[in-house]
């Protein structure tokens, strides 16, 4: 059971991972205003994944690393694996309580499995580096880009309200008030994350850096098939689909070939198994 907001990049990353590995799941769409669907949980963010109705996995990267570990090391149970990703409570620069998780980009595999999963010398470090980059940098480019102008902010909220779970009045309110608020907030985010005046330039550079890191010789960063970094970057970028920022990115960067290969692979994996 995946508790999510459909248009949240962290939730999208988890869906891409589950779909790619053909792990079946049901979705509980959380109302972002009241959030009553996750009232029972002490952890207050989405995504949350409940496994067999009993084990709770929090944080997109922990969910992905823990499930990947489970798929490979068949001898460990999910609770045993979860113990490898300890919850760390801390305060951030502004004194706000934040929850982090230790080792969250680390897939717990023994030496034999490690060689099978990461046959190239540096491929494990590379995967970790770019998964972290997707969470710490790429996601921060989404809001400033999709709420860049008032018109774009309205289009984005139209999409969020359409895809998400909102009451009728909430939806109307969210669209106009939310769009105006996010348009203003996105300027603050732009400064907070030191983005350029023209936020598109940061997005274009980021995806071109990604394409360069994948390199010309490989289909995916993982080689012939996507690794966890491919799945994460695709999951983040996918939330912009249908919006102006996405179309601009496709037109003005080199990402479309890799993106197309990811789409094709996922479509193939989503079709019923033979
Ligand atoms: N590090 C977390 C971040 C998750 C996150 O920030 N989720 C947002 C939605 S995009 C959230 O639930 N924020 C709290 C809220 O909406 O109240 C992860 O990777 O899952």
Structure commentary:
The protein is of the alpha+beta class. The protein has one domain: Glutathione S-transferase Yfyf (Class Pi), Chain A, domain 2 (Up-down Bundle). Helices cover 53% and strands 9% of the residues. It contains 12 helices and 6 strands. It has a 4-stranded mixed beta sheet. Strand 5 (87-91) and strand 6 (97-101) form a beta hairpin. Helix 5 (123-136) runs parallel beside helix 10. The radius of gyration is 19 Å and the shape is globular. The mean pLDDT is 95. Glutathione (GSH) is lined by residues 5, 8, 10, 32, 45-47, 59-61, 135.
In short:
It is built from twelve helices and six strands. It is an alpha+beta fold. It has a single domain (2-270), classed as Up-down Bundle (Glutathione S-transferase Yfyf (Class Pi), Chain A, domain 2).
């Amino acid at each position: 059971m995946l508790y999510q907001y459909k248009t949240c990049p962290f939730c999208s990353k988890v869906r891409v991972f589950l779909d790619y590995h053909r792990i079946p799941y049901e979705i509980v769409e959380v109302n972002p205003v009241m959030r009553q669907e996750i009232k029972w949980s002490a952890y207050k963010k989405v995504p949350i994944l409940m496994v067999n109705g009993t084990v709770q996995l929090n944080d997109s990267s922990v969910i992905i690393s823990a499930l990947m570990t489970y798929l490979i090391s068949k001898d460990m149970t999910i609770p045993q694996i979860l113990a490898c990703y300890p919850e760390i409570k801390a305060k951030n620069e502004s004194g706000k309580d934040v929850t982090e998780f230790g080792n969250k980009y680390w897939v717990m595999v023994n030496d034999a499995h490690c060689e099978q999963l990461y046959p190239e010398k540096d491929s494990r470090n590379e995967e970790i580096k770019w998964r972290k980059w997707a969470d710490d940098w790429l996601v921060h480019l989404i809001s400033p880009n999709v709420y860049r102008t008032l018109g774009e902010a309205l289009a984005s909220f139209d999409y969020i309200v359409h895809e998400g779970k909102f009451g009728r009045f909430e939806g109307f309110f969210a669209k106009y008030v939310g769009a105006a608020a996010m348009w203003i907030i996105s300027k603050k985010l732009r400064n907070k994350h030191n983005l350029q005046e023209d936020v598109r330039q940061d997005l274009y550079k980021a995806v071109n850096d990604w394409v360069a890191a994948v390199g010309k010789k490989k289909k995916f960063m993982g080689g012939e098939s996507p690794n966890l970094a491919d799945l994460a970057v695709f999951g983040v970028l996918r939330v912009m689909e249908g919006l102006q920022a996405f179309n601009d990115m496709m037109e003005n960067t080199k990402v479309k070939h890799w993106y197309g290969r990811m789409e094709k692979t996922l479509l193939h994996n989503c079709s019923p198994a033979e």
